[in-house]
Design brief:
With about 350 residues, this protein is α/β, with parallel strands linked by helices. The chain has 12 helices and 13 strands. The strands form 4 sheets. It has a 7-stranded parallel sheet, with helices on both faces. Helix 1 packs across helix 7 (about 225-235), helix 6 (about 195-205) runs parallel beside helix 8 (about 255-265) and helix 6 packs across helix 10. The radius of gyration is 20 Å and the shape is globular. The structure holds nicotinamide-adenine-dinucleotide (NAD) and thymidine-5'-diphosphate (TYD).
């Protein structure tokens, strides 16, 4: 069995990956490197923290000694989730995104390249995103061959990291595989993203900000489906290749928010249309025929079902999110969207 080293395991997708990898015995051991930024939360890993196969390393990929940890751990597989992940924050502070997402990835790739001289067969999975392809109008899909056209500081930084990983395959013979996925949702997602934020604000009777007219479209995938997809890439993916993943669940933002409000029996009057995001990508849509054909992977969770599960999770995990929502991130909203997100009808 393989030794896994993952980065960003205290975040949303990374923590699901850590828990599932140990539960399903995908690996013999798992080391999780995470800087614990605002988005990293060790509560996400409570279930596994005492597991003898698991080790947490508190390290910043930008400045820490990544090389030593990689050398000491001698992983068979590195799965690189760590990133600054929120588009709105990348508009406010692009430099941090370039640093973490490009230089952080570069530091990790170098450490993998160094380890490779003694560890043949090392595999590196780069967790990229559909946003590298840019924005679609009402029709069309992204294929693995679609030329990159990133339009936000976030997506540019991810496109650079994605290309860097493949460059290390061509130049240094490192076995890299890239996974590009559409919007994930599910438990443990930091409440600044559309779905958890809308659920929490609805539960609090707070107004729910929807950018522009709410007509922008995303293809939603339940986080466990993506995590399972990553494991199929580790098991069957080919070095130097990229694989698209999507949920086959395209919805406009206003549809998503309306579904959440209906499920919680809250009024549509909570919706507050705010000014649009700068450079807002209109639509993403993934073609994942390659993953179906070559990895025998497909999404299994219907959007309605996954959304209900997610709503239930936030309803029963108040302690997890109340600490977060009282803090810095609401101020972030007020700074960037100029709107006070008022509490409606709650004393
Ligand atoms: P997240 O923001 O929830 O978690 C990111 C994690 O990375 C946090 O635990 C944070 O502490 C850690 N981190 C940040 N900077 C670091 C640094 N310098 N050194 C070490 N650790 C650091 O993100 P997520 O939503 O779980 O996304 C994980 C990955 O998946 C990212 O690479 C993201 O670009 C990609 N992705 C996300 C989505 C999505 O919908 N969430 C979709 C496609 C791709
Ligand atoms: P988000 O969850 O930030 O993911 P991404 O920007 O990576 O797709 O946003 C999903 C969609 O929801 C996107 O079109 C922006 C929109 N959105 C809102 O309308 N209001 C909000 O408060 C947020 C966070 C997002």
């Amino acid at each position: 069995m393989a030794k896994y080293l993952i980065t960003g395991g205290a975040g949303f997708i990374g923590s699901h990956f850590c828990r599932m990898a140990l539960k399903q015995n995908w690996c013999e051991s798992l080391v999780n490197i995470d800087a614990l930024t605002y988005a990293g939360n060790l509560h996400n890993l409570k279930e596994i923290q005492a597991d003898p196969r698991y080790r947490f390393v508190h390290l910043d990929l930008n400045s820490g000694d990544v090389d030593s940890i990689v050398k000491e751990t001698e992983p068979d597989v590195i799965i690189h989730f760590a990133a600054e992940s929120h588009v709105d924050r990348s508009i406010e502070d692009p430099g941090l995104f370039l640093k973490t997402n490009i230089i952080g990835t570069f530091n990790l790739l170098n450490a993998a390249k160094n380890l490779q001289t003694s560890k043949k067969g090392l595999r590196f999975v780069m967790v990229s995103t559909d946003e590298v392809y840019g924005s679609l109008e009402a029709t069309g899909q992204f294929f693995e061959e679609t030329p990159f056209a990133p339009r936000s500081p976030y997506s540019v930084s991810k496109a650079s990291a994605d290309m860097l990983a493949t460059a290390y395959h061509h130049t240094f013979n490192l076995q890299t595989m890239v996974v590009r996925c559409s919007n994930n949702y599910g438990p443990n997602q930091f409440p600044e993203k559309l779905i958890p934020q809308s659920i929490i604000f609805a539960l609090q009777d707070r107004s729910i900000p929807v950018y522009g007219k709410g007509t922008n479209v995303r293809d939603w995938i339940y986080v466990e489906d993506f995590v399972a997809g990553i494991q199929t890439v580790i098991a069957r993916g080919k070095s130097g290749e990229a694989y698209n993943f999507g949920g086959r669940s395209e919805c406009s933002n206003i549809e998503v928010v309306e579904m959440i409000l209906a499920s919680l029996k809250k009024p549509s009057s909570l919706i507050q249309f705010v000014k649009d995001r700068k450079g807002h990508d209109f639509r993403y849509s993934m073609n994942f025929d390659k993953a179906e054909r070559e990895l025998n992977w497909r999404p299994t969770v219907k959007f309605e079902t996954g959304l209900k599960e997610t709503i239930k999770w936030y309803q029963s995990n108040l302690v997890w999110w109340e600490a977060i929502t009282s803090g810095e991130y609401l101020k972030f909203y007020e700074r960037n969207y100029g709107e006070k997100l008022v509490l409606k009808g709650r004393s």
